Amino acid sequence: MNRLPAVILTALILLGLYIVGCSGSKKNPVNPGGAADVTINIVGQNGSNSYNPSPDTVSMGTTVSWHNSDTIGHTATSTSTNAFGTGTLSPGATSPKVALNTPGTIHYQCTIHPAMVGTIVVR
Description:
This protein is of the alpha+beta class. The chain has a single domain, classed as Immunoglobulin-like, CATH 2.60.40.420. Helix content is 15%, strand content 30%. The chain has 1 helix and 9 strands, in the order αβββββββββ. The strands form 2 sheets. Strands 1-7-5-2-3 form a 5-stranded mixed sheet, with no helix packed on it. Mean pLDDT is 82; it is low at 15-29.
């Protein structure tokens, strides 16, 4: 019995589910493809100096990634809106890029170390 048609059908179904799942209408979607327009470095547990640059001002539609330059895991998670959450970034890791499509001030922090805070102004 030739199993190739079943394998192809399964692959097409999985691809279709992936496309449907990725087509939601988030205001600020995480977009893993390509490099971000802006990269913010996570430099350690230094309160409002934990992210560099912070504050940062960007134009609407700018994509941002966070790069963990520290020796321990950190996150960058919005606290003022549900704009983004990087999940835990291991040392040396860079988050998928986040498209900032809504104007305003976004405050964020490390959920592991809540004293680590940052700000992005979207214009």
